[in-house]
């Protein structure tokens, strides 16, 4: 089972939790603790010094270097960025090559209501980002906030933008999108192209419970401060690593073995 730590995000603030890593050094230190706790991959956004969201290539470069000098965890960059960002800004992490190149990048395959906002992904923009991911020579993680986004992945494959089977991330519980229910999870996992792998990222209070649901169903899970800041009701997680440790405990209780980064690379067909 691959555990991914979504470490930073674009929405969580230091006012909500003082444990949110913002600087490259903080991201690197927390990532190393996540690896030690059992994460095989980290999913990262980056922030400006004042904590505001950014997708600046040099901020990604600095964070990736701090992570890799501390541990061997896989690094996945976001191309979602923050609501309202243009495509070039969102793709800052896809300009990194050589030793700084990420291991994977997200590809959201549809627009969706996102709380009071709209996460805007029209079809031409999806194909633009898919082209940039492919040109970098890495694999996308297909981000699905609703079921139709799985069908869009099939369309992308027919048009030559991605290869199937692929790795999917079911993002459940965002306000305005598919709710965090086992019924929704079961349909989505039954609907992905044959041979595909999947991860579940459930929002807020659903996060750790859905680690168990994913574990029972042979899937993978994403936890972290991007999607949830609490270890239990009213108790802040003291870092992403603490959420990873709890996810690992729950996965093991369901009889699952935890993937190392090398095993995750093989399972997710990254090499």
What would your notes on this structure say?
There is one protein chain. Helices cover 35% and strands 20% of the residues. The protein has 271 residues and is an alpha/beta fold. The chain has a single domain (3-267), classed as TIM Barrel, CATH 3.20.20.
Question: Secondary structure elements and their pairing?
Answer:
Elements: E1 3-6, H1 24-37, E2 41-44, E3 46-47, E4 53-54, H2 57-68, E5 74-77, H3 87-90, E6 104-108, E7 112-114, E8 117-119, H4 123-136, E9 139-144, H5 148-158, E10 167-172, H6 182-191, E11 197-202, H7 207-216, E12 220-223, E13 230-232, E14 235-236, H8 240-253, H9 261-267
Parallel strand pairs: 1-2, 1-12, 2-5, 5-6, 6-9, 9-10, 10-11, 11-12
Antiparallel strand pairs: 3-4, 7-8, 13-14
Helix pairs in contact: 1-2, 1-8, 7-8
